[in-house]
Input
Amino acid sequence: MCGIVGYIGPRQAAGLLIEGLRRMEYRGYDSSGIAVVNGTGLKIMKSAGKLSALEQQLDGGMPSGTLGIGHTRWATHGAPTTPNAHPHTDQSGHIAVIHNGIIENAGAIRKMLQQRGHTFRSETDTEVLAHLIGELYRGSLEEAVAAALREVDGAYGLAIISEDEPGVLVAARKGSPLLVGVGEDEWFVASDASPLLEHTRSVVYLDDGEMAVLSRDGYRIRTLETAQIEKPVNQIEWDLTTIERGGYAHFMLKEICEQPESLQNTLRGHLLEEEGTSRVSGLNLSDDDLKGIERIVITACGTSWHSALIGEYMLEEMARIPVEVEYASEFRYRNPVIDERTLVIGISQSGETADTLAAIREAKLRGARTVGLVNVVGSTIAREVDGGLYLHAGPEVGVASTKAFTSQVAALALVTLRIARLRDLSILQGREFIHALQALPGQIQEILNRSADVERIAERFTDTTNALYLGRGVNFPAALEGALKMKEISYIHAEGYPAAEMKHGPIALIDENMPVVFIAPHDAVHQKIVSNIEEVKARGGRIIALVNDGDAEIERLADATFTIPTTLDLLSPILTIIPLQLFSYYVAVRRGCNVDQPRNLAKSVTVE
Ligand code: M6R
Output
């Protein structure tokens, strides 16, 4: 999704802005631009395509100026062209605006402004907002922005500068994340922490309805109505090295390989081995509260939705509570049956996914308790839920989610264990579960040590155009996730199915050109999946199977097998997903795909 960075201070802004935009490339974008103010006016440069296209334009020399804003755009209103790229200016050309989000009443405002003689150069809602700010300008940029925002409906993260006020940067937030970076005699705004880390780790998170006014003497936070409010300065724990590639060819590979550590970090401090339970005090729910829960609804999108499905299996099996898993985008527009005895769990890596946030707000409105399993510290979802657990997986830069997935499943395991122990699960079963959890980081490492075997399998399947992923029980969501990884980064059409469903339709697709990935650990449904493999074999399908050691039966049937260590059935997706992540990575790399920034995808989907 779109990225915002802004700077005011003693240094030249343009280079800092480009560097900041580079750090946000992972979010996904299709055009970029910067605006810089100096003593002689406002200089804007923008370009469709990758940041390198903008840099080519700047080859002739960076515009000078110590106040500036920069943007990467992910098209929503209007095609990804240079005229539609941000920054946009007002009618006078003095005010420049960059914007994440959507102004819903832009059409009506555009018409009103056209009647007053305004002409527009782009198809964007952002240009309409820039013109509105210009129209309301009476000598104070800050007041013009506040007045304009009182007129608009929709969502925005904004940064605005004017050549008439070379010492002021105004930022505002409603529904789209924005932070103020507090440096030494210099200040930044950004839509996520990554462009700030090189300069400062002190940040102020803006909340909806708040504005920041940055000047050369400091910053002030206000609302549209109130001139000043107090906000705490937070310290970001990540440093620059954690968001750099560190010798790996791609962020995705780095993040796959980080999973022994990221998983350990998710579990750290939560396991109470002696008592066979977990410590989840961050949920802000007492044991009595947890015992009183009658139903759990888990809501999420994409990969996080897949981890939610695994959570459903765990919670129902171990804690014996009815669980429903809802796409956040559907949940928010249904009339969901929830009350104060329903626990709603929102899962999100970024903590900014618009649909998940809206679903959680809806659940809160209806009286449910809400908790979040979120990776990004200080993100909107993390701040709005009643309680929650941070995943502590570290920054995930690759657009395809990998380490966040395994950490989400581990966090769900922690929640499950606590609730289950308050119900029927015995101390011995609790301890057994803990021991299995503790073994997972080492088992993941053992799989990673054999990555070359997965790469060799990938070589044989690089030219495929379709693939089926089949699993049963708790490995059905793992099949969905494996297929999602494949389609996201390699553009191969891949579908996940519960293995037994195959004969109700997809079996028609099976022939010698159709690879079928079976997730077949030696679990309670193993024999059933062997029958499904036989069915594919009988129709000439090419079989890739994930099995436990010594599975001679499947090894005999499959064209390629990869062994995974043994764990408890419910935890097996944390292991089975690792070779599937590697498989899609190696296939995509061999197909020449941009693994970290797949086409059309954004890292954090902050629009509906
Ligand atoms: O940040 P979130 O976990 O809320 O994001 C949800 C999805 O947008 C995300 O998982 C998406 O499906 C990824 N591209 C998956 O790799």
Notes: The mean pLDDT is 93. The chain has three domains: 3-238, 245-447, 450-608.
